[in-house]
Design brief:
The structure holds 2 protein chains of 2 kinds. Chain A is mainly beta. Chain A is 0% helix and 45% strand. Chain B is mostly beta strands. Chain B contains no helices and 11 strands. The chains are: A mainly beta, B mainly beta. The A-B interface holds A 2, 33, 35, 37, 43-47, 50-51, 56, 88, 90, 92, 96-104 and B 34, 36, 43-46, 49, 58-61, 94, 101-109.
Chain lengths: 110, 116
C-alpha cells in the first residue's frame, strides 16, 4: 500500500491528452512539493516534473504538472507511442521522515 | 553526470551484501545521496539518505537496524551495507542524487536477489 495514491493504469490514443492523478495528505504533498518520474520499460526512473510544475531541461512541454491541496496531476498532451511508460508521483513525508511514492500508473498508448 | 551501481547478486536469507555507487560528472561531496529500491514488478520505495558529509542519515522503517548507508567523498562513492537480508529485500537498488531537496539523477540500478 503506497502512501501516495495513483490509478494503476491509464490509456489514450496518439495525439490525445491524458491526465494521471496523485493523492496524498498534509504530511506529504499537501504541505510540500510533488514530483513526477517517468520509467520507460527496462530503464531507471527519470525526473519529469519537479516542484509541482517545473520541467527539467530536455523534457518536452507536452508534459505539465499541477497541484491543489493534497492532490496533484500530471498531464500529457499530444500523446506519442514513446510516452508508454510507468509514471510515479513522489514527495517528502514529514511524519515518516522519508520520501514516499505513488504506486505508479502504467500508461498505454493504444 | 553519472551514477553507476554495483555489488548486487544472489544471496541467501540472513546474508550480507554491500552495494556501491560511483559518481562522476559532478562534485559528489556537495550533494545529499539516496538509495531507492524497486521489487520485481512493483513500485519505487525509498530506502535511505545521507547528507553531503555523511553525518545526517535517515532510513526507512523497513530497513532500520539492518542497512547502513555511508559515503567516501574522496572516492566519489556511496555505499549501502545490507545485513540480515530477507526475501522481501529482493529488488533493483538505485543510487539517486538529490539537489535542492528533490531526487534528480538516478543510476541504472543493481539487482539484489535474496533466495535460498
Amino acid at each position: 500500500q503506497s502512501v501516495l495514491t495513483q490509478p494503476p493504469s491509464a490509456s489514450g490514443t496518439p495525439g490525445q491528452m491524458v491526465t494521471i492523478s496523485c493523492s496524498g495528505n498534509s504530511s506529504n504533498i499537501g504541505n510540500d512539493y510533488v514530483y513526477w518520474y517517468q520509467q520507460l520499460p527496462g530503464t531507471a526512473p527519470k525526473l519529469l516534473i519537479y516542484r509541482n510544475n517545473q520541467r527539467p531541461s530536455g523534457v518536452p512541454d507536452r508534459f505539465s504538472g499541477s497541484k491543489s491541496g493534497a492532490s496533484a496531476s500530471l498531464a500529457i498532451s499530444g500523446l506519442r507511442s514513446e510516452d508508454e511508460a510507468d509514471y510515479y508521483c513522489a514527495g517528502w513525508d514529514d511524519s515518516l521522515s522519508g520520501w514516499v511514492f505513488g504506486g505508479g500508473t502504467k500508461l498505454t498508448v493504444l | 553526470v553519472q551514477l553507476v551501481e554495483s555489488g548486487g547478486e544472489l544471496v541467501q536469507p540472513g546474508g550480507s551484501l554491500r552495494l556501491s555507487c560511483v559518481a562522476s560528472g559532478f562534485t559528489f561531496s556537495s550533494y545529499w545521496m539516496h538509495w531507492v529500491r524497486q521489487a520485481p514488478g512493483k513500485g519505487l520505495v525509498w530506502v535511505s539518505r545521507l547528507n553531503s558529509d555523511g553525518r545526517i542519515i535517515t532510513y526507512a522503517e523497513s530497513v532500520k537496524g539492518r542497512f547502513t548507508i555511508s559515503r567516501d567523498n574522496a572516492k566519489n562513492t556511496l555505499y549501502l551495507q545490507m545485513d540480515s537480508l530477507r526475501a522481501e529485500d529482493t529488488a533493483v537498488y538505485y543510487c539517486v542524487r538529490s539537489v535542492e531537496g528533490y531526487l534528480d539523477v538516478w543510476g541504472r540500478g543493481t539487482t539484489v536477489t535474496v533466495s535460498s
